[in-house]
Amino acid sequence: SRETTYRVQASPLEGGGVLVVFEDITDMETAGQMRRDFVANVSHELRTPLTALIGFIETLKGAARDDAAARARFLDIMEREAMRMNRLVADLLSLSRVEAAERVRPTETVDVTALVKAAIAALRPIAADQGATLEFRGEDTPIEILADPDQITQVMHNLIENALKYGAPGEKVTIAITREARDVSLRGPAVRIDVIDRGDGIDPIHIPRLTERFYRIDDHRSREKGGTGLGLAIVKHIVNRHRGRFRIESERGVGSRFSISLPER
Ligand code: ADP
Residue of the nearest CA to atom 23 in ligand 1? Predict the structure, then answer.
């Protein structure tokens, strides 16, 4: 039940009469609107830390000039805000790079098992900081697919970091690799990677929207945890580029499972 927008053009015909052409421009309108929304969102996201930075610089030049304790505290906040802007710009760049290459099939032969294990090893210290553990579940045999290793690594980082951010504090996060002889929607052999947390779970009404840019269930929590709101949008585009499938399942009070399936050939 969506509305249709028409562009109407009328031109006089030689023998009298008028030719009226209705052109359905609904998609163009939607694309234009989405671009405008995106630019407005990005501007807002960048302006928030910038406003804070400008405010603190003013204070440091004025009232707090001779207050060493306040200076140290303000510099900490300024560092955090600058780092937030840095992450946002990095995520925006990733997103635009992934989108630009979305039609170019990855060509590198990659061992998914090794890649996933490397991602887990890289994130163990962050998990340990929060008292959480990362558990690998799967066989130790190599599984080769055609992929862009940096992008699949980024997918793993985004999903595991989310599981740590939104999962129950101090809990276990499981990363499982399963080979599927035939994935129904990919119509062939596939490798599935699940990232499973034991957090609060996600209300079903949010699930379809989680991969939208800047969509957050709890704005405050995401920002507090240093989120940019772009992580799952990036995941979705990378999985699309690999002709894969991305699924989110969740149960309130039990936890969530973020799965990607990638074609093996
Ligand atoms: P963010 O930077 O806010 O984490 P993402 O695109 O990675 O952005 O995720 C979007 C939103 O999806 C998050 O703000 C959070 O509300 C929700 N979300 C993501 N992963 C999980 C998870 N494992 N459990 C519960 N909610 C999650």
Answer: 163
Instruction: Determine the distance separating the centroid of ligand 1 and the alpha carbon of 205, expressed in angstroms.
Output: 14
Atom of ligand 1 nearest to the CA of 216: 14
Rounded Cα distance, 35 and 69, in Å: 44
Contact 230, 95 (CB under 8 A): yes
Q: For residue 160, which phi and psi values (nearest 5 degrees)?
A: -70, -40
Q: Does the complex come out with an ipTM higher than 0.95? A: yes
Distance CA 69, CA 49 (A): 22
CA of 87 to the centre of ligand 1 (A): 15
Tokens at residue 86, please?
Answer: 């840095």
Note the pLDDT tens digit of each residue in 91-146.
999 999 999 989 999 999 999 999 999 999 999 999 999 999 999 999 999 999 99
pTM of the model: 0.88
Q: Which residues pair with 144 in a beta bridge?
A: 111
